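Sorry to interrupt, but I need a hand with the structure work. Could you write out one complete protein record for me, on any chain you like? Just paste the record in under my message, thanks.

. . .
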Amino acid sequence: VDVCPVEAFHEAPDRLLINPDTCIDCDACVPECPVEAIYSEDNVPDDQQEWIDLNKEAENHP
């Protein structure tokens, strides 16, 4: 994702992941997401909580 100033996004075979340890919460990516799927960790909807752990695995992807 070109708008990320710290390159927190990592491409997995079937999704983009955001490494929460790299992300600086600048929100530059939020308006760029075509499916409105980016939330701060405190605001992730209940039905999407499982994605928090999946994003934490982002550091395992190149």
Summary: Helices lie at 50-56. The chain has a mean pLDDT of 86. The beta strands are 9-12, 15-18.
